[in-house]
Design brief:
Layout lengths: L2 H20 L8 E3 L6 E3 L8 E6 L8 H12 L5 E6 L10 H11 L5 E2 L12 H9 L9 E4 L5 E5 L8 H12 L3
Parallel strand pairs: 3-4, 4-5
Antiparallel strand pairs: 1-2, 3-6, 6-7
Length: about 180
């Protein structure tokens, strides 16, 4: 390869990097540690996809909603839906170690959607993802607060802990997110 061609390729690849970052909405920029794994979850992988983000807790009265969230994910994953569970101890109902959290999610409820390690989701310590969700909607008031995000990284709707994953309003918001343009 000639020096000229090498320099050209280098310049072009440098121009492509900012373009890729620009394709990732601000809400989805960043990474989270994956639950009980060495890998991280690159939030930009959700860019252009409909997404449900939910803050979870292993020892909450709403924990059985994992079953409904998994059913929602299975129902719509072939249409591009992603679900991201973010455990949090902000409301003092999450296990102290991630092994217990993983057991609740994966063993007790058969979760196959992506789960992160426990994170702060409220207040000044909230991770950037939840700060962004709160700016576009409102901060979670309890565990299992659900956000439906369209393909452009905009919150279409948010739902309280009382709203079950099969609630018609939540399902309608998910279908709207699926129908949204990337």
């Amino acid at each position: 390869m000639s020096l000229r061609r090498f320099v050209c390729c280098l310049l072009l690849s440098g121009l492509a990097l900012p373009a890729l970052a620009a394709d990732c909405p601000e809400l989805l920029q960043g990474e989270l540690p994956r639950l009980r794994a060495k890998e991280t979850i690159d939030l930009c992988q959700f860019a252009g996809k409909p997404l449900v983000v939910v803050n979870t807790a292993s020892f909450c009265g709403f924990t059985p909603q994992f079953k409904g969230l998994e059913a929602l994910y299975q129902r719509y994953k072939d249409q591009g839906l992603e679900v991201l569970g973010v455990p949090s101890d902000d409301f003092r109902q999450e296990a102290d170690d991630s092994e217990k959290t993983a057991s609740v999610c994966y063993v007790n409820y058969g979760v196959t959607f992506q789960m992160s390690e426990a994170q702060a989701v409220t207040g000044a310590d909230a991770i950037p993802l939840f700060k962004g969700l709160a700016e576009q909607s409102k901060a979670p008031r309890w565990n299992f607060y659900k956000y439906v995000v369209d393909r452009q990284g905009k919150v279409l709707a948010s739902f309280s802990s009382l709203t079950k994953p099969d609630d018609p309003a939540l399902v309608a918001a998910v279908e709207k997110a699926i129908a949204s343009k990337p």
